[in-house]
Amino acid sequence: MASVAFSEKYFESLLKLTPKEQSQANKAVMLFQQDPQHGGLHYEKLTAFRDNKLRSIRANQDVRIILAAAEKEDLYLMLYVDHHEPAYEWAAKRKVEINPNTGSLQVFTVEERPLEETSRQPAAPEKPGLFDTIRDRQLLQLGVPEDAVDLVRAMKIEADLETARERDQIPPDAYEALFMILAGASFEEAYNEIVLTSPDVVDTEDFTTALTRPESLAHFTVADNEQALQEVLNQSIEKWRVFLHPMQRRLATGNKNGPVRVLGGAGTGKTVVAMHRAKWLAEHVATKYSRVLFTTFTRNLAADIQQNLNKICSSEALERVEVMNLDAWVMSFLKKQGYDYGLLADAKEERRLWEQAYSEKPASSDLSMAFFQEEWARVIQPQSVNSVDEYKKASRIGRGTRLNRQQRVEIWPVFERYRHLLASNHLKETDDVYRDARHLLEGQPQLRPSLCSVIVDEAQDMGAQAFMLVRALVPRAPNDLFIVGDGHQRIYGKNKVVLGQCGIDIRGRSARLKVNYRTTDETRRLAVSILEGVEVDDLDGGKDTQQFYHSLMHGPVPEVKWFSSLEEQADQVLTELDANGLSPEACCVIARTRNEVSALRSALENRHQTCHILDGRSANTPAGSLNLATMHRVKGVEFDAVFVASVNEGLVPLNLVIRSAADAVTRRQRENEERALLYVSLTRARKLAFIFGYGAMSEWFEAKKVT
Ligand SMILES: Nc1ncnc2c1ncn2[C@@H]1O[C@H](COP(=O)(O)OP(=O)(O)OP(=O)(O)O)[C@@H](O)[C@H]1O
Fold first, then answer.
1. Which listed residue, of 76, 364, 533, 679, carries a Cα 20 to 30 Å from 423's Cα?
2. Each residue of 54-73: pLDDT tens digit?
3. Residue 190 and residue 325 in one domain
4. Of the candidate ranges 256-270, 514-528, 559-573, 657-671, the one whose mean pLDDT is the lowest
5. Tens digits of per-residue pLDDT, 118-150?
6. 437-462: per-residue pLDDT in tens?
7. How far, in Å, is the centroid of ligand 1 from the Cα of 526?
8. Which DSSP string corresponds to 395-463?
9. Alpha-carbon distance 569 to 562, whole Å?
């Protein structure tokens, strides 16, 4: 039986056909796998074309499947499917080759069409080439096909590289390397990033081996038996399930000699990597008695992840993975040990307790209640400070208000009182709960759950106590921890965590994902610009950057529009939905506060638009209803279009939050978090993003507005 592989492009083209044609194409491929020479398929060599490996078969009278044949290996690569003429047109200039330097299987176009006119404007002849500093030999090492070297040499402006990618003249791996060079990387940096496993010798005729390389598997999937073929064809191909970026694949598979940390801007596929890692661990490391715990920040995110894992894991693998938000997991664990506390989750209750505790403040002190709350969250809880003596010694690095030892002694009773109030109300904060669970495990190791591995998603919003608990949950061993996060998206006022200080040593095992698969580059740029100048950490005491972070999709630059009233803003939301043919259930209106979300809801409902508020519990949005959510709630999810609404002065950044900061340092931290909220909101958009406001505009957008 023949082996069949499919390119990503094949599925893209398949999905453009009618359901009937798709099913005919599937049948043809299945028949082909049984018998490539079957008369009904009209297996035909496309001799006059650029690549003599190309063949076609018939799906019906008109629809043709274009494939490349490695006949000696009885291996066939399905590349494209379309109606007769466009299918042959597509095939005429394509080449399918194993790159002799990188070993990756590449499909690209060879054509003599010049690059855009822009490069040939009067001044162009003297313009230096984009890649003049890179030698031909280096271009080849980076995976540029020999046929494309002249084209690369002719590139004069950035748009030339984009044009070449859009026309498939440069294969994706070579494009990425060239993109990095343009963005300032040295040859060595680009090479190390793109050519993950440089083969010693490449056999350019050995397609079977080429298809095992991560670079090839980013764009091809193999079905080497009938069952595999059925599976590939039956599932609607969601790309993330099959076509992993080489870096994603490298991270998701194989034994790791200890904790791994994965960073990456919004939409770079961190959660996808974490899910594939869970799958790999479930298949290779876990047993029924030693499972994988996949934790994330909220119940909604855990539910989404479970749903997606169901799509990629067998039922045996699923039994070996437990998905839960960390709070829920720890509470359930503690309850089983007879723990008799509830979690303090109600902001009003919290405020009430603080107001009582604040009354212990010495009359001589003019510190605000906000100061005490911040001090508690950023100094006392992360360091498990339990007594005045410990407080005297506690590190207060990063705090804006200085306190000498005497002052610490004087204000300590406020914290003691707050702790007492929590206890007398049978309440604990999450940090307490994490700590209690860890102490329990340290004192009674036999209680340790049987886990071989813990995966942590959205790590930027987990604090030190959470990570110390995670460390205690699983013994130090290969594959023990896999941590995924993005400091740019820290929105819950947690201290920056330093994994090394929580006993988690990631040295030599960390990576950053750079390709945004969700958002258009135009939206991504705007989102990144909001965080300009904000220093972002890498979860381990170092700095993170957005260098080389890019998106391959393009669309309109998000519009920043201003209105005179909330009602006018609501009108415009409806106008844009209509004008862009958007389904309301695939879109979301996002505002900073719950009150503003409610006001928007009323305005939209008054205009006969049904709305669906995304809150703590997720339920599917009914068809025709428009999603509405706060900025906090949209973390980790995505929509075709987002309307970041009511970006008004006072709301963005939220005045209340900024004004109540006890000192300048805290104010800056809060302002950065407000920026992160906008970054998160904007990067939820798959196709379109809008920034709307009314009344006085947020100072952050004054310069960008369109009237
Ligand atoms: N290899 C891939 N091929 C195609 N699509 C992908 C790939 N990896 C991820 N995606 C898609 O990109 C989008 C973002 O992925 P994911 O949610 O994993 O990113 P993330 O880095 O966790 O995002 P965020 O931090 O913004 O929540 C999803 O729609 C996902 O299906």
1. 364
2. 999 999 999 999 999 998 99
3. no
4. 657-671
5. 455 555 557 899 999 999 999 999 999 999 999
6. 999 999 999 999 999 999 999 999 99
7. 19
8. --TT-SS---HHHHHHHHHHHHHHHHHHHHTTEE-HHHHHHHHHHHHHH-GGGS--EEEEEESSGGG--
9. 8
User: What is d(CA 107, CA 5) in angstroms, rounded to the nearest whole number?
Assistant: 13
Strand ranges, E, within 610-650: 611-613, 626-630, 639-644
Residues 47 and 25 in one domain: yes
Does the residue 283 lie in any domain? yes
Cα 175 to ligand 1 centre (Å): 20
The residue-averaged pLDDT of 573-601 equals: 98
More reliable by pLDDT, 583 or 223: 583
The number of the ligand 1 atom at minimal distance from the alpha carbon of 268 is 21
Judged by phi (left if over 0) then psi (alpha if -120 to 50, else beta), residue 508 lies in: left
Burial group, residue 213, by CB count within 10 angstroms (0-12, 13-18, 19+): buried
660 and 588, same structural domain? Answer: yes
**pLDDT at residue 465 in the model:** 92
| In a domain? residue 256 | yes
pLDDT at residue 707 tops 60:
no
What is the residue with the minimal CA distance to atom 5 of ligand 1?
240
User: 641: domain range?
Assistant: 556-704
Domain match, 167 and 42 both: yes
Share of the chain above pLDDT 90, in %: 83
**One-letter identity of residue 640:** D
Entry pTM: 0.92
Probe target for ligand 1 pocket from 176, 456, 517, 634, with the most ligand atoms within 8 Å of CB: 517
Q: Which of 276, 518, 640 to mutate to test the pocket of ligand 1 (most atoms within 8 A of CB)?
A: 518
Query: How many domains is the chain built from?
Result: 4
Residue 577, domain CATH: 3.40.50.300
Out of 231-240, 340-349, 477-486, 676-685, which region has the weakest mean confidence (pLDDT)?
A: 231-240
| pLDDT recorded at residue 704 | 65
Instruction: Output DSSP code: residue 694.
Output: E
Residue 12 CB partners (closer than 8 Å, separation 6+) = none
**Within a domain: residue 224?**
no
Atom of ligand 1 nearest to the CA of 245: 1
- Mean pLDDT, the chain, integer: 92
Known binding residues for ATP are 264-271
Ligand 1 atom nearest 680 alpha carbon: 26
Verify that 29 and 112 share a domain, yes or no: yes
**d(CA 167, ligand 1 centre) in Å:** 24
Pocket of ligand 1, candidates 268, 272, 311: which has the most ligand atoms within 8 Å of its Cβ, to mutate?
A: 272
Distance 515 CA to ligand 1 centre (A): 9
Q: Ligand 1 centroid vs 242 CA: distance in angstroms?
A: 12
Domain limit, last residue, from 369, 399, 428:
428
Cα 290 to ligand 1 centre (Å): 28
Same domain, 80 and 11: yes
Alpha helices in 218-266 (DSSP H): 226-234, 239-242, 246-252
pLDDT of residue 188: 95
Instruction: Give ligand 1 pocket residues (Cβ under 6 A).
Output: 239-240, 243-245, 248, 264, 266-272, 486, 489, 517-518, 636, 638, 683
Q: Which two tokens stand for residue 468?
A: 């110390």
